[in-house]
Amino acid sequence: MTVTAAIVGSGNIGTDLLYKLLRSPVIEPRWMAGIDPESPGLRLAASHGLVTGAGGADWLLSQEPRPDLVFEATSAAVHRAGAPRYAEAGIRAIDLTPAAVGPAVVPEVNLGEHRDAVNVNLITCGGQATIPIVHAVSRVTPVSYAEIVASVASRSAGPGTRANIDEFTRTTSRGLETIGGAARGKAIIVLNPAEPPLIMRDTVFCAVSPDADQAAVTKSIVDRVSEISAYVPGYRLLDEPQYDPAGDQLRVGIFIEIEGAGDYLPKYAGNLDIMTAAATRVGEELAGSPDH
């Protein structure tokens, strides 16, 4: 069954998402809402046959019929204001901001638990890239501490990303614990100013028992990377997981890079690509839920 969808936010993320939704066999994007009538994203959406408007959520909610799904690609503050209105209108929301209004979802870890949720949150780009790896370790052996460092090209961080840095660190850290399974989590983001821009790279450290089954941990990580690369083709391990003694624990080091698909954004913007790919994956799953 095909469901209809709207994208709110005509910036880089919303426009890249548009290209992915246009390829979906089960989602039909019909509307894009922005706030700048001269936005290149709105023009592109119109050229692909979408109905567009520069009145934001107010404009979208005035449309008839209304979409089944709305993809929010604005900012945490904007989504917090819009979420109750979407719910009241009977529109399910997939939130690409760190607003954390609905349950936090990483498709390959816990999407099945939230298929009927009215509003789901995709955490952050760093969270989508690293939380499933921490979960891959914790499903084999307890993780007492997980720390991630997400390095993204400065040129791929637009105003929305920069405005949400505090939410990024808080939301990602919480996700490492509540979804990844670590007893304690910490997240750091680095906006790398290198030119030419470098693709997204993430370093994940997990503290585990020295008696942990290293072969089983490595297999779990490799399996998880394979699962994610099915919908994010540029997601890959840079090397085999590394194991080093750290006091009375064993430190597992995992090194990942994400190359974007190059749909609308440059390939170095893997941090944005993993968000739009995950949003598409979630939307297609919700399209098949009993509500639709």
From TrEMBL:
* NCBIfam families linked: ac_ald_DH_ac, PRK08300.1
Q: What is its EC number?
A: 1.2.1.10
Query: From the UniProt record, which GO molecular function terms apply?
Result: acetaldehyde dehydrogenase (acetylating) activity; NAD binding
Q: Where, in this chain's numbering, is NAD(+) bound?
A: S10, G11, N12, I13, S156, A157, G158, P159, G160, T161, R162, A163, N164, N271
Q: Name one Pfam family in it.
A: AcetDehyd-dimer
Q: Which organism is it from?
A: Actinoplanes lobatus
User: What top-level class of enzyme does the UniProt entry assign?
Assistant: oxidoreductase
Q: Which HAMAP family match?
A: Ac_ald_DH_ac
- Domain of life per record: Bacteria
- For this UniProt record, give its keywords in alphabetical order, as a comma-separated list: Aromatic hydrocarbons catabolism, NAD, Oxidoreductase
Q: Which family does it belong to?
A: Belongs to the acetaldehyde dehydrogenase family.
Q: Where is the Semialdehyde dehydrogenase NAD-binding domain?
A: 4-117
Reactions catalysed, semicolon-separated, are: acetaldehyde + NAD(+) + CoA = acetyl-CoA + NADH + H(+)
Instruction: Give the active-site positions.
Output: C125 (acyl-thioester intermediate)
Q: What is this protein called?
A: Acetaldehyde dehydrogenase
